[in-house]
Amino acid sequence: MSGEIAKTFARAKARGEGALVAYAMAGDPDLPRSVDVFTALVEGGADIVEIGVAFSDPIADGPVIQGASERALKAGSTLKRVLDEVVPEVHKRCPETPLVIMTYVNVVMAMGEERFAKLARERGVSGAILPDLPPEESAGLRASFDAAGVDLVPLCAPTTPPARAQAIAKDARGFVYCVSVAGVTGMRAELPPDLSQRLDLVRKASPVPVVAGFGISTEEQARTLVAHADGVVVGSALVRAAHADGPGAAKALCASIKRGLKR
Amino acid sequence: MTTETPVGRFGRYGGRYVPETLVPALMELEEAYAKASADPSFGEEVTRVLKEFVGRPTTLTPARRLTESWGGAEVWLKREDLAHTGAHKINNTVGQVLLAKRMGKKRIIAETGAGQHGVATATACALFGLPCEVYMGALDVERQSLNVFRMRALGAVVRPVESGSRTLKDAMNEAMRTWVSQVSDTHYVIGSAAGPHPYPTIVRDFQAVIGKELRTQAQAAFGKLPDAIIACVGGGSNAIGVLHPFIGDKGVRLVGVEAGGHGLDSGQHGASLTLGTEGVLHGSRSLVLQDADGQIQEAHSISAGLDYPGVGPELAHLVKTGRMEVRTATDDEALAAFYEVARTEGILPALETSHAFARGRDLARELGRGKYLVINLSGRGDKDVATISARGVPPPVGVKA
Lengths: 263, 401
Prior knowledge:
The structure holds 2 protein chains of 2 kinds.
Chain A: H1 4-14, E1 19-25, H2 31-43, E2 48-52, H3 63-74, H4 79-93, E3 99-102, H5 105-111, H6 113-123, E4 125-129, H7 135-148, E5 151-152, E6 155-156, H8 162-170, E7 176-179, H9 195-205, E8 210-213, H10 219-225, E9 231-234, H11 236-245, H12 247-260
Helix pairs in contact in A: 2-4, 2-12, 6-7, 8-9, 10-12, 11-12
Chain B: E1 9-10, E2 13-14, H1 23-38, H2 40-54, E3 60-62, H3 64-70, E4 74-79, H4 89-102, E5 107-112, H5 116-128, E6 132-137, H6 138-143, H7 145-153, E7 157-161, H8 168-181, E8 186-189, H9 199-207, H10 209-222, E9 228-233, H11 237-243, E10 253-261, H12 272-275, E11 277-281, E12 284-288, H13 313-320, E13 324-330, H14 331-345, H15 351-367, E14 372-377, H16 385-389
Helix pairs in contact in B: 2-4, 4-5, 4-9, 5-7, 9-11, 10-11, 14-15
């Protein structure tokens, strides 16, 4: 366990808040300027920053993050460059904020699981989320991550049966990422009515914090969810704001959602 | 003999690398398929539809003039082009749509490259009364307009995919994204022997009817098993279908032919077995065309069906363990083979299949006289006439134009 993630959730809880896990795409619009976006997320109140690393075939992502992936790849983003040029700079500017890499398993496999875990840890990464790596396929990779001190955060889906969700939660590292809607990433006007019930179930089984993600973009949604989760993940809405109106817009959106997370 | 391990692995390859949302659906599919396979009435129904509707068994045709012209092994053609809808793809779609009905699914989605799988899926959906949506790369929509019309005529919706290289890979991405959001009532009919477990197994099993028929037909036609079987490989469904029943027959050489595109040195090809490296694409670990950073590269082939940067995991395993040989044929070689087969045997093969003929000639000569070579004629070329005729038509044979 990296430890930083647990401490961060504990600090937010002590302040009477849910944690905001904020996502942006490294390399969008280019590597140096994405550092400014990540910094803005933290200035806006993000407790944990998810650093997206682009993949050519992002099957779990909707149009907003697909677009960001394409821009990042065009700008020359690679996992190696993100670890060399983005992560250290964000870590320097925001030393208290745990950084979590979010990418697809092929990108990590191409670098080598052990090499990635070691390098990521050295650069200041606390965890990783790989949305196309379900528990059945993750044993070997997770052992490497554990050895290096990088938390492999598991995902639970709306389609995950209760017993499986409990098993995933019991064995989790870092936090449990509960996918709110059956679908790809992207803003939704409405979240499923059974979401709070599913969050309660996972939370009861989980030794680590539980967050809800996918589809969340407003202060109001955050306010509803904070009763059932330790935090929320916001991605597409921040990526869109940063792309359309710059880091300041992403910062403002973080601040707004953070207001919703106050209990 | 099976090359499959209990967890959906073929040696190092295979597995189930998908978002958690899909895992329960894949488990449900695995269980439903196991139950259906154990139920004789399911197999009987598939067999009945393949006979009554698809026209199976397909013929094993002696290619007498090609044999004479090539001057080597005796060449025989397994005629999947004669299956209803004009390609082997229907073998799998009939099976999967029947399975989807058994599972109580209300709608069907599919991806397609050349459009043959899309047409075959739309056909099975029309036959069994299920709504059908087909995701197709926008570039493929342009170059396979005949098949786009056929799908629409059959009542399906064709959804052009504008992302990435606008080909099969991107169509598969979009189909998977759609499936994630509609997984409870929708069955995704994958057409290649690729994708997450259990798809490579299911597609192989439904396509293995080709090789099973061939065993019987070869015995009847020339009194023994073939000395070699050759098939084109994109994702690999026709290849695994014709080759799989012969894996245990050491005397039978199994040969796949990949898209050489503009040549292996050009970087524009679809040769994932030949030049790919280990990676995860579309839910399974296999050999893929990718750069050093794990980004999937765009494939190229004149034939939309071979224009794919991945390949089924079982084929990757068969190649890496040395049981299967791989060769490549370029766009130009495939085109030349198309005309050679047309004018020598009176058959217009699909451009995909033409790759198998291009290397079939070399193989027939290597084998020599007295040996038997079977070429899997995976599909007919009608869908490709626009692509081919745009490059001009060679002069007629034996008469003045």
